[in-house]
Design goal:
Strand content: 35-45%
Shape: globular
Number of helices: 1
Helix content: under 10%
Largest sheet: 4 strands, antiparallel
Structural class: mainly beta
Order of helices and strands: EEEEEEHEEE
Strand order of the largest sheet: 5-6-7-9
């Protein structure tokens, strides 16, 4: 799920699982029992698993940056940890506790520019 839409999912018991940031959400094949694994993204666009089962993903707009000050580094490769909070979007509405600073990117990349 991505920002600015966030997520609003109804659980079996009728309660809502909701938050404003983008998030990696796991559920059963029928869509029931949604669970937020990590959050704080704008748009998590790809997900892969390492041979050890760790999740790695790409996020466009990992950080909102001034092109000149950052050299254009904006997109990122991220290690997707259970309970992880990533820095782009404030954590609003999600049920997970905040236990420290947002997690850094594994690597930052410049945004792709369309041909002029």
């Amino acid at each position: 799920m991505g920002t600015p839409d966030g997520y609003r999912l109804r659980r079996r018991d009728g309660t809502l699982l909701e938050g404003e940031s983008g998030a990696l959400i796991r559920c059963r094949p029928d869509g029931s029992d949604p669970e937020v694994l990590c959050r704080g993204f704008v748009n998590l666009v790809e997900l892969d698993f390492t041979p050890r089962g760790e999740r790695i993903g790409t996020d466009n707009w990992f950080r909102d940056v001034n092109e000149k000050a950052s050299g254009g580094l904006r997109d990122a490769l991220v290690h997707l940890l259970d309970g992880g909070l990533y820095p782009y979007h404030p954590d609003v509405g999600t049920p997970q506790p905040i236990t420290g600073e947002p997690l850094p990117a594994v690597s930052l990349f410049p945004r792709l520019r369309s041909a002029d």
